[in-house]
Write a structure and sequence with these properties.
It is a single chain. The protein is of the alpha+beta class and 483 residues long. It folds into three domains: 221 residues, Histidine kinase-like ATPase, C-terminal domain (Heat Shock Protein 90, 2-Layer Sandwich), CATH 3.30.565.10; 118 residues, no CATH class; 122 residues, no CATH class. It contains 16 helices and 14 strands. It has an eight-stranded mixed beta sheet. The radius of gyration is 31 Å and the shape is elongated.
């Protein structure tokens, strides 16, 4: 090929590409994703045996190369580049042509968006690319070029003499920009763990090749080993539906994560991750101990065809046709898909999978509250008896005053429901055919109505006691001349 010409203004494409500074590893993940696809392609055309795929990621840090190589611990040195090598199919004529085409649909059937290289240039100064491949004549060819955020994009294109009979690609993500570097955890193990979490569905389905991450001092981690040792193998799954759309939730246990997380995925890659504690408080903020005394956090992954379809171009969110992704009053009335509905469906899935565990946690929580209710908040004894499920949903470890407020909300709702029940019962009495049916309906109503009467008496006693305590407190303050 005599000359490479970009079919778009590359600098402008990079400028218009969105990459939050809080996602500094996304360019690495985009490059690894391309390597995964290249390995799959090589397996399909019999260039590579199933299971022989390999990806090597080298972390290049600030500092003298020889000095870094001699130090036992270099994780505190900032990362400025990543070198990613694979033994995939390489930049064949077809793949190179697609690389040159902005917004290419070359890999659209497997989730390719055609902008991964622009995401890389958003965070890195340049990409240095070298690739060797088998051409249509079954001879080996090798190319090398630089890709930069200039109008032309492509620089220093060179045809090289093949150095072996192998095939694959080596990409240097060179020069991480300061605004992204400050948001990057430098530890090699942290990078490896983030990579496993991002591509976890590949590991769960045993579709990941060998992926090795290396430091310049020869410290290395095997991503498959991290998955096998830091994620429990007992992955649970459950399907759920929103309208006609089917989604699957995978729930796994991570021994090294820092919190319970919910991931929404597209094309087997994590796109949005959210903390689970605020959505399912009975999981708790802290790790859970299993039967072997290992402590872990739950990691949930949601997949579905609609998530694949509506993931945005940069893979940092979803563009659902319903538009509104937040909880609203009419959320349940809308017929489209949004993130709020997905979240609710996923949380219900987790509730179902962990039903026994959550029931035990909530039962213990109620037992912890019971003495306070019986001794200090007796007006809510009937509330606890008749609205136990609602009480079980309260946050744990509430102090007495906040527990009082939350129980008051449940109690008020219950009282309203009983009044509505009375009105409905009087209307139904006109159409009920037998005395037995009437008695059964009245029996349930009278039981709850009498319980409310008892709680009113207890409420009066507590109210009187509170007034007396306040008056005594005010008198004490006056006697000490503080009042």
């Amino acid at each position: 090929m005599e000359q490479l010409l970009a079919t778009s203004n590359i600098a402008n494409k990079v400028r218009n590409t969105r990459l939050p500074r809080t996602k500094p590893l996304l360019p690495l993940f985009e490059t690894v994703s391309n390597s995964l696809h290249a390995i799959i392609e090589a397996e399909k055309v019999k260039l590579l045996k199933k299971g022989d795929g390999e990806i090597i990621i080298e972390c290049i840090r600030n500092g003298d190369k020889d000095t870094l190589a001699s130090l036992p611990d270099i994780d505190t040195y900032p990362i400025n580049s990543f070198i990613i090598s694979d033994n995939g199919i390489g930049l064949t004529d077809e793949n190179l042509k697609a690389f040159m085409e902005a917004d290419t649909d070359h890999k659209i059937t497997i989730g390719g968006k055609g902008i991964g290289r622009f995401i890389c240039l958003k965070a890195f100064r340049e990409m240095n690319i070298q690739s060797q491949y088998v051409n249509k004549n079954e001879t080996i060819e090798s190319v090398k070029f630089d890709f930069k955020a200039t109008k032309e994009g492509f620089h220093n294109f060179t045809n090289l003499k093949p150095n072996s009979n192998g095939h694959g690609t080596k990409i240097n993500l060179n020069g991480l920009k300061a605004e992204y570097q400050t948001h990057l955890e430098y530890g090699l193990h942290s990078v490896a763990r983030e990579l496993v979490a991002h591509f976890l569905l590949y590991f769960i389905r045993k579709q990941a090749p060998s992926i090795i991450l290396k430091n310049q001092n020869n410290l290395e981690y095997n991503a498959n080993n991290i998955f096998n040792t830091e994620f429990k193998s007992d992955v649970q799954s459950k399907k759920f539906k929103i309208g006609d759309a089917v989604f699957t939730l995978f729930l796994t246990k991570s021994l090294k994560s820092q919190s319970h997380k919910l991931h929404f995925c597209a094309h087997k890659r994590s796109v949005i991750k959210e903390g689970l504690f605020s959505k399912l408080i009975d999981l708790g903020k802290y790790s859970i101990k299993d039967e072997e005394n290992n402590r872990f956090y739950y990691q949930a992954y949601v997949i579905g065809d609609l998530l694949d379809e509506f993931v945005d171009t940069e893979r940092v969110g979803f563009n659902f046709p319903d538009g509104n992704e937040e909880d609203t009053e009419d959320d349940e009335e809308s017929i489209g898909i949004n993130l709020s509905k997905l979240r609710k469906g996923a949380i219900q899935c987790i509730e179902d999978i962990l039903a026994d565990y959550l029931h035990n946690v909530r039962t213990q929580k109620v037992e912890n509250y019971r003495p306070t209710i019986n001794e200090e908040l007796p007006q809510y004894r009937s509330t606890l008896k008749h609205r136990l499920i609602d009480v079980m949903q309260l946050p744990p470890d509430l102090p007495k005053d906040k527990l009082d407020i939350e129980l008051y909300k449940i109690d008020s709702k219950w009282r309203l429901e009983v009044k509505e029940h009375k009105i409905k019962l009087l209307e139904e009495e006109k159409i009920l055919q037998t005395t037995m049916n009437i008695l059964k309906k009245y029996e349930q109503f009278l039981e709850e109505f009498n319980e409310i009467g008892k709680s009113d008496l207890a409420r009066y006693v507590v109210h009187r006691k509170t007034i007396i305590e306040l008056l005594e407190h005010l008198i004490e303050n006056k006697d000490s001349e503080v009042f």
